[in-house]
Amino acid sequence: MPSPSIKRNGVAIKGNIETKSHGLNEVSRNVAIRNELDLYVNVVHCKSFPGIPARHSNVDIILIRQNTEGEYAMLEHESVPGIVESMKVVTTENAERVARYAFEYARQNGRKKFDVMNMTNLYGTIVSNVICGLIGGAGLLSGRNYGDHYAIFEPGTRNTGTAIAGKNIANPVAMINASIDMLNHLGHKEHARVIQEATYETIVDRAIRTP
User: A Pfam family in this protein (predicted)?
Assistant: First the structure.
């Protein structure tokens, strides 16, 4: 369940919480938080970073996706021993409000070129991870989760990073960018700008790197 402080403050910043897969009763706390707070839309702005080598240097893509339904409805069950079913639930209400959010976002931010991919939640995860890879990897981009009353900011790829735990090679930029997004959301534009510029300057300075 979400912390009372999230409901009190209306915002939070978090990393991806690992979900154990030892049994059918395991519940993703990430999904539970999004569902409980009705954070129905996820926004990831995939834009090329100066100083980050990548195959493409002019990427500027905003991905807006449904955040609470589809495969993440958490309706898995074992119909008979050894046979597990996962129900995908997509409602008209949620599909329409995500579409309205996306087109309103495009109108307010001057986005004139866009494509629409109509798909369930899981495939939005795949697309966002691929796009993050285009600009340099999982440790760069932030993700924003919005509902009508709450907002949570996190790394864009929702990767727990367990494969690199203890190796001292984790990239902190995604979490820093999440904090920048949160400050902008709260109206602290100048503080966000200072942190963002310092982050970009650090990335460009090739003498400063994780191992």
Answer: Iso_dh
- Distance CA(43)–CA(47), nearest Å, equals 13
The tokens of 14 are what?
Answer: 């978090």
Residue 143: inside a domain: yes
59: left (phi over 0), alpha (psi -120 to 50) or beta: beta
Q: Under 8 Å CB-to-CB from 133, ≥6 apart: which residues?
A: none
Q: Which amino acid is at 178?
A: A
* pTM as predicted: 0.86
CB 105 within 8 A of CB 64: yes
Residue 97 maps to a domain? yes
Rounded Cα–Cα distance for residues 60 and 32 (Å)? 31
Containing structural domain, residue 183:
4-204
In a domain, 209, yes or no: no
Q: Which helix (H) or strand (E) holds 142?
A: strand 142-146
